[in-house]
Amino acid sequence: MPALLLPAPAKLNLMLHITGQRADGYHELQTLFQLLDRGDDLEFSPTLDGRIELSPPLPDVADDDNLIIKAARLLKPYASANAGVAIQLHKRLPMGGGLGGGSSDAATALVALNHLWQCRLSEDQLAELGLSLGADVPVFVRGRSAWAEGVGERLTPVELPEHWFVVLQPGVSVNTARLFADTELTRNTPVSTIRSALAGAGHNDFEAVARKRYPEIELAFTRLAEFGQVRLSGSGASLFLTTQSDMAAQDLLRSILEQYPGYSGFTARGVNQSPLQRSLANTA
User: Fold this and answer.
1) Which CATH class is domain 1-284?
2) Is the whole-model pTM more than 0.85?
């Protein structure tokens, strides 16, 4: 097969509640996943040598810890013995940004290699494999904006307004495990409903500890408040503001970066269907 270029879209958490902690240490969540039309790209070139190769390597991430390689290895038992792949990663999303970059990359690898290696696994099977890599992977495998519960694996597709967003990085990478372990993290937010979340209710339980532990995030919240309602995605560090059009988003980003040139950011549109699934359908 020829090489296959596919997107790995970002996500935003429009709200994120931590409603409890299980005996195994995992946290019970409720969150609203909004997929975006922007993210990383991965190019898959199938080979017949049985090898899995990724370039360029991610800084300070060993192959055994790289979610893309781990995803490919999970699929290998379902492929022919000589099935291999060379993967080129075009990384655009920041690491430790709360945008789901690593999870989305892994999901794209699962979906792409299931197609290229003709593994014939169902979406449910791919999502189950993805869950072993991370709680955010299934939503990218399924490719729909969704209401999520449990550790993030119980998904209900939702139709969200396809707003435009300004997404900003305040110049710091957040350690999610550190925030989950923080003794000041709220873990008992009352259980909510899809209806209230879709109506705009809810908050992000990570925000308070992220702002307290990372001065860069606190400063960014303070600076950006003059431009509109600022929200944290996931555990951070990315912040976002909502606008009603592409032009409004571009103008807002330009104003922010002119005033605070040390920040970086981008604009993106919220989408209900993932660009991954649309791109793959176009190759069929």
Assistant:
1) alpha beta
2) yes
